[in-house]
Amino acid sequence: MTTYNNIGRSLARVDARGKVTGETPYSGDLSMPGMLHMKVLFAGRPHARIKSIDTRKAEAAPGVAAVFTAKDVPVNEYGLQWQDQPVLCGPTLTPSPLPEGEGQGVRGADVVRFVGDQVAIVVAESEAQAAAAARLIEVEYEDLPVVTDPLEAMKPGAPRVHEEIGDSNICVHYKIRKGNVEEAFARADVIVESEYRTPVQEHAYLQPEAGLAYIDDEGRVTVVCGGQWTHEDQEQIAHALNLPLEQVRVIYPAIGGAFGGREDMSVQIILALAAWKLRRPVRVIWSRQESIIGHGKRHPVVLRARWGATKEGKVIAIENEIIGDAGAYMYTTNKVLGNSTITSTGPYFIPNVKTDVYGVYTNNVPSAAFRGFGAPQALFMAEMQMNKLAEKLGMDPVEFRLKNALKDGDTMGVGTPSPSPVSVIQCIEAARDRFGWTTSPYPNPLPKGEGSVIRGQGFAAGFKNIGFSFGYQENCWAKIELRGKAEVDEAILYHASAEVGQGTHTVMTQMAAEALGIPLEKVRLVASDTAVTNTSGSVSASRMTFMSGNAIRGAAEIALKKWKAEERPAVGEFKYLAPRTTNFEPETGYSTPNFAYAWVAQAAEVEVDTETGHVRVVRLVSADDVGQAINPALVQGQVEGAVVQAQGYAIQEEYKTKNGYVLTDQLSTYLIPTVLDIPEKVETVLVEVPDPNGPWGARGVGELPYLPVAPAIAAAIHDATGVWIDEFPFTPERVLRSLGKI
Length: 742
Prior knowledge:
The chain is an alpha+beta fold. 25% of the residues lie in helices and 24% in strands.
């Protein structure tokens, strides 16, 4: 293996000192002289038409500078994929400022479609004054029929969430048609048919939505707020305010977690609107309750699977139906469920596949990007099916996986081979060996424990795309400026990437130092400001190490060439274009939807208390192929963080609603893991099979170790109890019910 000076070393994070000392400002820490404060009036009901809004009492309240409603938004629409959501819901009275023939915003802007729709914003001298005034706004609603079950929402005649879009609530439908499924089922010796349900998950990032907006020295509307893609935020703000792009500036301060939950807008547009209208700085900080009802969640999904295998242990036929709850607006449902489609066959070669994937509008809080991006749901189904088939065939689940695992050149479910090296076999073997997996089928070799506490072990695998793909031309920009005389005294790296806690800025600095052949301390990063950078794309889809590394290498090569020509300062600017991809063929799903994949396998040991129903993860081994670990300690941190977050998803976090109203809107009712709940031991095994297109061979790791946790735990519960539980979280109540004890 090649030895590098800066790559492959667990160097300290570049942002560590400021964060641990409290010197680094997050969005909620920001302030400016003369700053005003904002409060949002949320709809508070899942589906209704706004007949009128009376803001006169609020406007006359002490300290109030302004109250803004839908009529104050120049182009009252936004959305990351589809512009199907009003910035503010309500009647629009002003004429459109857009050219004739273009609309002012979404049709039906006077309709609220979930409890977190924003109806009005109040800006006042203090937060307390803004909150008091918001309570004085009088809104007349006409309640509309509510639909919250996606299965019901799919039916003809169901209440429509968007009357103005399409002819039903189905907003996404993808298909895979590969081989001859019926003929293959006729040859199958065993068939397993099941229905699975995966739950909503709240991102629960430490920093709720907050930000500050002002007019900068060059007259630009400037929004300082956490997000995941500065330039996309800039475009959406500019569109809604009907401003030229160059008149909007977005800066990211320190960001207290994201996990996909900051891909979609929350407070950015309304902050910009208020600062633009009032020409004064405006700050907003959401409460945890506002955050929970106001931003999107992980998609809850119903998954129906029928899989067939031969007695020799080869899976030959799959028939899947996947139904995802999109909630009130599109957000990233089309892309999330695209990933569910790809991963629905698991990391296995299956010659015959029939899959239908649906996204359905409901009056629930919108479903959004969340770590894993549709793969955790689909892989729960796939890995449960693999474990059930292995049991039915009397085979060890690890050996069964090795018989079916994809190899280089094998076609995936979408009919084409992986464009990057396939290392799932190496991952399975690495997890098996580190865990000390036994070879007999579900033998319960572990000590059973004492009394009511019994133990079991489970295994699962998975894979994840790197990058957005689906035909989108992936790109990422970087600029490097070399300063000095005889030798480089300083290298300034300009890049738009967000740092959401995962260590991206540290990794980029290491890659720049390596590409330039200089010590790390000579690299200075200028990041996350649209005024000084071009676009890098989103910090999502496990893409940033791969994309930024290639952009940095290109910029470094140009800068070094100029430096050798004695150009001072030497500036290199480069835009990396990833290999091309294609979208699904509509009737078959045939495609090359991604330019790279990463692979993972995990083994878990759990304890189940059969008296209380409590499940505890004792140990989990995660073998992840990262291609090349740029910073091994950061990779380990990503693995451990992903496992803890996925364990919360699998066991503990129970998001409850009733008729569209959120019942668990506080962290006192929506319980996330504490240090007393996490696994006793998480072991990270780095599998490094270089990707030829990745920088120094690197792939991505942010989402990968999240993917198989839930099915590995489910298999371990089954090993302990003999019961398959096809719906999670595996709460004590659900476990006891499955055991027939309640």
